[in-house]
């Protein structure tokens, strides 16, 4: 028989398993093609709550959920095979209650805790009831104690379980109250590359709740460690850290904190190397006066954004357009540089683009540049 996917993995609009889950500003997750069609049809309300949305709603990639869906597909059998012998495990499969007891017991060995975490990870991916039982049983404190274990495998499994728990809206504030942020930030600083990537994704998941954005940003070194990963990390950890920074910086006070940590020059360096998520973060930071002033001090910043306009994905192009629009509205110098870089000509070619957001953003930037052409 076909495997049954958790309802959390299904798009509320299409009712199909999500391949590119994104978080709407209302806090609900949809598959990107489905919610994009809804928005392109002119709707400016959340399909679930019917609450109004901004004129240009943000679609935040839900990397945490996408990772869970991918992992579930990898480990879930597509059909049962009763004629084959059951696999042999090094340890017996225990009930959740027994696993939690082993995890929370101070006398349990590291090996026992590691096995309990592995089994609870597998179970919690598929069953919201297991995740609820974990939080209600008081197991979260034991999971958090394992997060910063000197044993790398134990810390990674604990972070993965914490990520599973963070996906439920009811848990996001509760995990913060339990002290999750401090443990996660410590993993950002001293964990392995895999641990840093998972820790970043946890912050992205927790920051879906508005109040958590302020709490995370105010926590000592949270944003500083994300910026540090973007600067010195590699591969997945850089992408996840940039996504977390993007989500957190939708809260205005956190933009200033990111600027104080020297994020702007680092983001431009990474954007020039081809990481478009850095451009997404720049688009958020450009909303603040201080962010625009900082960008104005970066030599060649317009040229870097122009490269994205010419070679980037649809999302990258849109973010580059928005960033340039912010810069050109508030800086004569940026307008002149944009003129020299041929931005107006590029925008004119984009006003007929098939992507509605790109068309709107390009049209807005054309108006900004035409209104300031005397400055060139």
Structure report:
By secondary structure, the protein is mainly alpha-helical. Among the domains are: 7-61, Zinc/RING finger domain, C3HC4 (zinc finger) (Herpes Virus-1, 2-Layer Sandwich); 96-261, Leucine-rich Repeat Variant (Alpha Horseshoe), CATH 1.25.10.10. It has 22 helices and three strands. The chain has a three-stranded antiparallel beta sheet, with helices on both faces. A hairpin with a 5-residue loop joins strand 1 (21-23) and strand 2. The model is unreliable at 75-90 (pLDDT under 50).
The CATH class of the domain at 96-261 turns out to be Mainly Alpha
Separation of the first and last Cα atoms: 67 Å
Portion in beta strands: under 5%
CATH architecture of the domain at 96-261: Alpha Horseshoe
CATH-derived topology of the domain at 96-261: Leucine-rich Repeat Variant
Region (Disordered): 79-111
Domain U-box: 4-79
EC number: 2.3.2.27
Biased composition (Polar residues): 79-89
Summarize this structure as a short list of keywords or feature phrases.
three-stranded antiparallel beta sheet, 65% helix, Leucine-rich Repeat Variant
């Amino acid at each position: 028989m076909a495997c049954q996917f958790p309802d959390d993995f299904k798009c509320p609009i299409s009712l199909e398993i999500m391949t590119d889950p994104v978080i709407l500003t209302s806090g609900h997750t949809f598959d990107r093609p489905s919610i994009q069609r809804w928005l392109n049809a002119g709707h400016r309300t959340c399909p679930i709550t019917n609450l109004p949305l901004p004129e240009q709603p943000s679609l935040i990639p839900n990397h945490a959920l996408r990772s869970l869906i991918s992992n579930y597909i990898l480990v879930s059998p597509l059909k049962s095979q009763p004629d084959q012998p059951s696999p042999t495990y090094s340890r017996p499969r225990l009930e959740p209650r027994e696993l939690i007891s082993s995890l929370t017991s101070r006398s349990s060995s590291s090996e026992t805790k590691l096995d309990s975490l592995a089994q609870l990870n597998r179970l919690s991916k598929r069953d919201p009831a297991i995740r609820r039982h974990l939080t209600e049983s008081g197991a979260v404190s034991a999971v958090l104690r394992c997060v910063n274990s000197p044993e790398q495998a134990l810390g990674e499994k604990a972070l993965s379980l914490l990520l599973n728990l963070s996906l439920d809206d009811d848990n996001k504030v509760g995990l913060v109250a339990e002290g999750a942020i401090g443990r996660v930030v410590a993993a950002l600083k001293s964990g392995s590359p895999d641990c840093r990537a998972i820790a970043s994704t946890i912050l992205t998941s927790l920051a879906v709740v508005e109040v958590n954005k302020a709490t995370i940003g105010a926590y000592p070194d949270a944003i500083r460690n994300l910026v540090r990963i973007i600067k010195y990390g590699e591969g997945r950890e850089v992408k996840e850290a940039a996504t977390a920074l993007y989500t957190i910086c939708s809260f205005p006070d956190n933009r200033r904190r990111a600027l104080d940590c020297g994020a702007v020059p680092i983001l431009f360096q990474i954007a020039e190397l081809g990481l478009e998520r850095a451009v997404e973060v720049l688009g958020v930071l450009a909303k603040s006066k201080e962010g625009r002033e900082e960008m104005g001090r970066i030599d060649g910043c317009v040229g870097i954004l122009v490269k994205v306009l010419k070679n980037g994905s649809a999302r990258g192009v849109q973010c580059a357009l928005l960033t340039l629009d912010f810069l050109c509205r508030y800086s004569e110098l940026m307008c002149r540089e944009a003129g020299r870089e041929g931005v107006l000509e590029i925008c004119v070619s984009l006003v007929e683009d098939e992507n509605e957001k790109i068309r709107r953003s390009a049209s807005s930037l054309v108006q900004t540049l035409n209104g300031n052409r005397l400055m060139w």
